[in-house]
Amino acid sequence: MNRLSRSVQAPRVLNIEDLRRRAKRRLPRVVFDYIDGGAEDESTLRANCRAFEAMTLRPRCAVSTPVCDLRATVLGASLSVPLILAPVGSCRLMFPRGEEAAARAAGEAGIICTLSTLSGCRIEDVAAASGGPVWYQLYLIGGRECALSGIDRARTSGFSALVVTIDTPVAGFRERDLRNGAKELLSGKLGQTLPFVNQLLVRPRWLAALLADGGLMKFENVVIPGKGPMLYADVTAALEQSVVTWEDLKWIRQAWNRPIVIKGIHTAEDARRAVDVGADALVVSNHGGRQLDGVAPTLRILPEVVTAVGDRVEVLLDGGIRRGSDIAKALCLGARAVMAGRAYAYGLGAAGGAGVARAIEILRSDLVRTLKLLGCASVVELDATYVDVPRDWLSK
Ligand SMILES: Cc1cc2nc3c(=O)[nH]c(=O)nc-3n(C[C@H](O)[C@H](O)[C@H](O)COP(=O)(O)O)c2cc1C
Fold first, then answer.
1. I need a labelling partner for 63 at 20 to 30 A (CA). Which of 153, 276, 286, 316 fits?
2. What's the gap in Å between 166 CA and the centre of ligand 1?
3. What is the pLDDT of residue 19?
4. DSSP letter at 232?
5. pTM exceeds 0.85 for this model
């Protein structure tokens, strides 16, 4: 076991919050806050986590469950745990070849990893690193030509599903990033960078690793015809011109003949609409509270979406997963599996692939313990009888 792996073992790291603290120590503030922060007052970010606290468990005691079965099937792929790594952009700023490290850890753990369009590692390299099923998350950044080339590369590399994110018509107002000078640091202009550069210099290990990995990454999967991979400085403006509409989903459906997952469902109405345009699965997601602040926590929306779509598509949830018991609660309300973003991004920032593996292991062992304490032998048996939902959640 190497130094990084040792640094995230028990008793130093027992939970996701421990990984968060370690990431904070290793990363410059601008990178840590990019992971940790949310939009505006961060009220949805907090609410996502609090919703899990508000829902309580109803165990069946004096029941022996010597072995608990955690296996789940999502879009035909079998997972060792009902957990999927959510798309997280710019992982290469968190750790050298970050997306490859995350995909490798997911593959070794028997779960799916989703690669963001806004990643620093190439689609082909992430597929090769993974060894397991991988999904590709699509933004229309750079225009339709550019998206079609990404779709084509994902198909050729063996990605098994396309995740289309629909809640990003403009980047959320993430105030921490603005205060930390994220824009200035990424501009590449010395004059603009100088007032903010100190936070990088006080993390020499991170800085040395970044430089050894080639310095500031480009978006290797957003290749602008005639220009090459998109530069960091261009991304915010490009994102604002890349809104995905229901119309776009028609040509995307035609261009991709494998399963499509629509991510960013906030209401029963949009859930039905997503089914109508041919989605195979939905993710009830508010982007981890990074987009429209003030929307309801995802756990609270989940029952309305599950009721709206029935068993026509598979329903996933993300936002606020920090404990295995959070996974159990989402499954009790009808999610087939959950996605986690920050939980593994903290691990990546703390210790690279070893930290991602540790995050997955923490959630897995938490889930086993939760099932045993609930007196439930398998994740597929989890249902609403194992939980109490706050009364006002049912008023709709
Ligand atoms: C640092 C960071 C970057 C993200 N980048 C993307 C992205 O590129 N595409 C996307 O669809 N979602 C992105 N997300 C949202 C996640 O996919 C997911 O919806 C969210 O993290 C779930 O909330 P959680 O972090 O509480 O688990 C990002 C989230 C974080 C924390």
1. 316
2. 13
3. 98
4. G
5. yes
